Amino acid sequence: QVQLVESGGGLVQAGGSLRLSCAASGRTRSGYTMGWFRQTPNVEREFVAAITWPAYSTYYADSVKGRFTISRDNAKNTVYLQMNSLKPEDTGVYYCAASDNILPIFLMRISARYDSWGQGTQVTVSS
Prior knowledge:
Layout: E1 2-7, E2 10-13, E3 18-26, E4 32-40, E5 43-53, E6 58-60, E7 68-73, E8 78-83, E9 92-99, E10 116-117, E11 121-126
Parallel strand pairs: 2-11
Antiparallel strand pairs: 1-3, 3-8, 4-5, 4-9, 5-6, 7-8, 9-10, 9-11
């Protein structure tokens, strides 16, 4: 199983930026999908973005498209989520997830398709 550790969360004003990191270690496979999800107390875990490995296919939720960018550094086994133009509704605990397989686009937003999860990092956007 892959171990995932997120970092980079914090408090930021609306319109600001944050970059989240997710470092992967352990039994990494040659091909898989990594995603970011977020959760708030009143909402179920929500898909944010995903990227496939080693191909560079990316997929975003409509709510973050054009503001967030997911990327990866192969040498560091790390995935990033650059978040710009943040809004108060982006507030939540952000989780990194890894699937043992390369997921087709129509499955990337389904949390049950991911096999490993990080501990989460809090992002708070003030108005």
